[in-house]
Amino acid sequence: GDMDQNSYLDIFSQKGDYYDTQKFDLTLKDMWLRKRKGCWELKCPTAKEASSDHSQAAALCTRYQEITDVPEIHRRVGEVLKVSPEETQTSSEQEDEPWLVRCGLVCFAEFTTERRSFTLSEEEEGVQIDLDQADFGYHVGEIEVLVPEGGDVQCALEKIRKTAQRLGLSNDQKVEGKMDVYLRKHHPEHYAKLLIEHVL
């Protein structure tokens, strides 16, 4: 049957520290700066397509670009926080501390996630299903397709829609992400601001 073709990929645990300014300049723009295993990552929304896509698949998905290149992260964060590049330049050997201080960035959330990853079958190539369990007691799953720069986003959306259908998932209801739940529990003011700005 269907289930025999499922392949179990991986299980791992990772701690993430999330940073922003006191005024939440980054997260209010839906930009998420985090440090995991000593590496910086910046998740920011991809530029919206010129034609507004109101399809069911688009409604079901959030699209982010994930940046791991540190100079590029410094540049993007500097643009938002209006900190000039000269001030944020650090050689790779230097500590993060001076950069964080100059930008006024502080850690606003930290939690550990245990993730189990699966692929369903060969027919939806490149589709990964992640089941996450956060250490503050929340479980959530996501269907993920990574699209290379300039890749076919529509095709990826369609794959996600088909996979969701196979799993019996509907898009009637927006599921809360781990961060939504964490902030609602621990930082209700920050959570409220993000809701007002329609980030969450």
Question: What does this protein structure show overall?
Answer:
30% of the residues lie in helices and 30% in strands. The chain is α+β, with helices and mostly antiparallel strands and 200 residues long. The chain has a single domain (2-196), classed as Hypothetical Protein Pfu-838710-001 (Beta Barrel). A seven-stranded antiparallel β-sheet has the order 4-3-2-1-5-6-7. The radius of gyration is 18 Å and the shape is globular. The protein starts with 6 loop residues before the first strand and ends with a helix. The mean pLDDT is 84.
Shape: globular
CATH C-level category: Mainly Beta
Q: Mind summarizing the main beta sheet?
A: 7 strands, antiparallel
| Helicity level | 25-40%
CATH fold-level name: Hypothetical Protein Pfu-838710-001
Total domain units: 1
Radius of gyration: 18 Å
CATH architecture level-2 label: Beta Barrel
**DSSP summary: helix tally:** 7
CATH superfamily: Hypothetical Protein Pfu-838710-001
**pLDDT averaged residue by residue:** 84
Instruction: Report the sheet-strand fraction.
Output: 25-35%
For this structure, the quaternary state is single chain
Give the strand tally: 7
The chain-level structural class is: alpha+beta
